[in-house]
Amino acid sequence: xxxxDCISLLQWxxxxxxxxxxxxxxxxxxxxxxxxxxxxxxxxxDVALYRAYLDHHADEWLLLRDLCRITISRFWRDKxxxxxxxxxxxxxxxxxxxxxxxDSLRVWSVGCASGxxxxxxxxxxxxxxxxxxxxxxxxxxxxxxxNVLLARAKVACYGxxxxxxxPVEWRDIAFDHIDNAYCLRQRFKIGITFQHHDVxxxxxxxxxxxxxxxxxxxxxxxxxxxxxxxxxxxxALVSDGALMLGSHEQLPIDERRLKVWxxxxxxxxxxxxxxx
Length: 276
Ligand SMILES: C[S@@+](CC[C@H](N)C(=O)[O-])C[C@H]1O[C@@H](n2cnc3c(N)ncnc32)[C@H](O)[C@@H]1O
Hints:
By secondary structure, this protein is α/β, with parallel strands linked by helices. The protein folds into 2 domains: about 60 residues; about 200 residues, Vaccinia Virus protein VP39 (Rossmann fold, 3-Layer(aba) Sandwich). The protein contains 11 helices and 10 strands. The chain has a 7-stranded mixed beta sheet, sandwiched between helices. The longest helix has 21 residues. The N and C termini lie far apart (about 55 Å). S-adenosylmethionine binds next to helix 7.
């Protein structure tokens, strides 16, 4: 399949899946390869024929949606975001939780891939913040729609590339280097629950001090679906909690309930509850 054929297929199909082409422009390679493999399985040689197949097989759309999932992640992705979390956001949220006499700080990592994001949070807490907030325990709920990734997350062994942004001294403290893999030591797995969950569904119950929703909804979903998810996420935040997006992501333009928190462009909090 030529690149231009894959682009035109994606530009036609993605809006029908409530996804947006913009998010896929740079990462389409892996999706195109998967679609090509699928077309081979079906003995379909031409993109036009695959479109016709989609027109006549409603189930194929579910499969195509899965093929369009981007699963790239790594520890400390967007280093600046983790510096802000460690220096500013998590200490403020921890102080607020302490003032409420809570005994835990609750974080939800949405679309957690193989655990790189939620484990980055536990490392930050264990190695930088825990001693400052001895009365608080960190609880991280890490959810993803992909059970294969969740199983990998529980094993928590990674290639060197997944750790390239993590400070080397933290890598050496937190991981055992076994053969070619870096495996997270047990003490850094404590406090994390991995759970299957589709972010388009209502949230998994609890109220969270911090929700990380990065490089998923606000990159790949269309605006209608983004607005629906924002509603779910805000309902799952405590009154002075924070929502963190990816560093290149923005909320839908007409989403007025949220305010930048306090000055960092990728952190938001419910406007009507904003502390001054
Ligand atoms: C690009 S990765 C981002 C991982 C991590 N948040 C980060 O920023 O590094 C997107 C993740 O979202 C997951 N995902 C895709 N659709 C989802 C959905 N509807 N509900 C929950 N997770 C989903 C994918 O399986 C993948 O692990």
